Amino acid sequence: MYQPSSRSHLLVDVPLVALLAVALVTLPACGASSGEKSQDTTEATAQASEEYTFTDDLGREVTVANPQRVVACMGSFANAWQLAGGTLVGASDDAFSHYAVDSSAVSGVGKSTSLNLESILALNPDFVIMTGVSDGKHSTGISQADMESALDEAGVPVAFFKVTTFEDYKRMMGIFCAITGRDDLYQENVANVEDGINSAIATYSVASKVPSVLVVSAYSKGLVVQDSSGMAGAIVKDLGAVNVADEYPSLLSDFSLEAAVEANPDYVLVLAASDDEATAQKYYDEAVGSNSAWQGMEAVKEGRVTMLDAAHFLYKPNANWAESYVLAGQALNK
Hints:
- By secondary structure, the protein is α/β, with parallel strands linked by helices.
- 49% of the residues lie in helices and 17% in strands.
- The chain contains 18 helices and 14 strands.
């Protein structure tokens, strides 16, 4: 402990070398006063400062070093990066409208479908997170890969991810948490979520019945069928049901109410393509109308048609992925 009254007198005529010796002796005592927490913090800082190299979902090798000025070009990616303990300087518009990213602290860089490259570069980013092209397995519906060359020329590290299923999210979060050095957040926002998913599957599995399910998205222009490569379709498959679009792939390209009725699904899951449930219901009602065949389908007559909300099935639920499994599971156990 430093004591001014005694040390100030002793140091008057002490040689410089002796002073340095005294300083070196007293340093450990100062460090000890902060305890193990100081040592852990130092080690964490050193770990986070190290370069980290990984392969993104387009097969590109990317190297980052403790990025602090990150721009995320999908709302779900912005949320995921923050869940991994990262900081943002920029994000696409959906990050603010659907993932509660603070617009007073993070700048907008345009819609995920029409990004503003100048706005991105003006933020002087040290890492940009984008989504890649659909490859039929990981379908995002959006590609931002056309900006790759411009960002490369500017010397900005950019990584592309394609997230449709929980496994995709898990893979991406593994990279994010490795970059930030936050294993604790991986445990909280991935491992614990996976435990919740496994619990939901154990509770709501329909594998013993193997029911058939028609998964459709309700838009203003009608219904669009989803197979098991989509998020909801993958969840249905994990719960043990059979997606009729996997057995009747023609429904994907040439959907008609008559063809859906012919497939005769045990359940119909309708994905809301609108944040407003009333609007989503309106889209569905307009699509099926008073079609007698549709209304006569057993799933419709017996009330086995469920509208699934946008927050859990249109936008990636990230840390709430287990809730999506619960909701789908409850719908398949009607």
